[in-house]
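Q: Sequence in, structure out?
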Amino acid sequence: MKSEYDVVVIGAGPAGSIAAKTAAQKGLSVLMIEKRQEIGDPVRCAEGVSKIWLRKHIEPDHRWICADVKGSRIYSPDGTMIEMAEEIAGGEVGYVLERKIFDRALAYDSAKAGAEVMVKTRATDLIMENGFVKGVKVMHLGETYDIKAKIVIGADGVESKVGRWAGIDTSIKPVDLETCAQYLMSGTGIDQNYCYFYIGNEVAPAGYVWIFPKGNDLANVGIGILGSKSGEKNAVYYLDEFVKKNYPNASILEMDVGGVPVCGSIEKTIANGLMLVGDAARQSDPITGGGIINAMEAGKIAGEVAYKAISKGDVSTKALKEYEDKWRTTIGYEIDNSLIVKNTFTSFTDKEINSLAHSLEGVNFSSMSLLDLLYALFRANKKLLWDLRGLFKNVVKYELDFER
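A: Exactly. Output:
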């Protein structure tokens, strides 16, 4: 570990590793630090990801792919099932990963590209000079070090301190945080070709239960509910109730808990000499809580912008605004639309959810755009036209702009 680098990346998840890899490939000197002693552990993720988007960043490897699913099955409170093909089932349906191996593969790729990787190395503060981030103070095996950097990239997850140290408001209200719990289970007997989602206020208030196949009769069975709904009956309680009712004879092999930001875009993700990526930048999907692909996309953009800014000798917010603009017009567009949907559907009663599911029975989801889906919903549920008017307007504008 040297005393100075072009870029220091804090956090070795998908966002951090892709940012480090991208910057190193451009010829920058890069240090990526991870506070834990093992990259990828503990897992705080359902581990599902879109195949198409994943291939943009890394070639699929059987070592970290547990299941190759062909679609999702969504169950309403009364048991009505809607089946969607993988292509339109969302960014979390496609491959089910083994994150412990996957995250290490991403970190390995960043190291191959030339980045230095240091585990059990915790950021304790930023080095600030004249309003600019100039590096990071770290602790490694009980020793403290000052590491200078032209740019710091904060990829330190939902608990991120890096943004706050730089004066960026990354606070989350309970209504904008999903509290999650997940069991790795054997003996569920699910069809390994599908991801399963269960919605309804009795099973998961303002959230959902998921079951993602992991091969060999293994499955991730998890739940996410809004923090504002997590009182005496917390996420673990609801998950236990679901498991007891549906899989009483299955075995729990592992347990993970954590939080996921579902607040939508925050006001800013840059400061002089600093960029935030992934969950640290609140870039997860407000509906599903999924964030792997968004994190990787943001990491790539941040790595590219870091190279341009350092090459020009300008790492001010004016130069780094290119990162802000690029992610907001791509993944940010999807996040904003998802927030509209989240805010609408979290207020639905179970009766309204059942009615919605009934209106979609018999609809062919093998090839359908979001615009097609909205039209199908509106035809059967006129109230949605008003509730989702912002989303409808955004999608129509996007479709028209794309056609031009």
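The CA atoms of residues 180 and 224 lie 4 Å apart.
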